[in-house]
Structure prediction request, 61 residues.
Amino acid sequence: MKCPNCGGRDAVEIDLHSEGFSAETSPVKECGTCGLVWRIKVVGGQNEVDIIKPAGKTTSS
Ligand SMILES: [Zn+2]
Prediction:
């Protein structure tokens, strides 16, 4: 699963709500590149990106 924000592949699964996901939602992932936290929800048979925390690494370098 690529990051939907930056396309990076450096995403890890994190476990915010371990009992909270079901067949309709995938585990929460965090991008190691841009900091985006998201998961995929299945809505009406379509995968939908559910942004939990916007990308937020403000390194001004
Ligand atoms: Zn990213």
Residues 11-53 form one domain. The CA atoms of residues 39 and 50 lie 5 Å apart. The first strand starts at residue 11 and ends at 13. DSSP finds no helices and four strands in the chain.
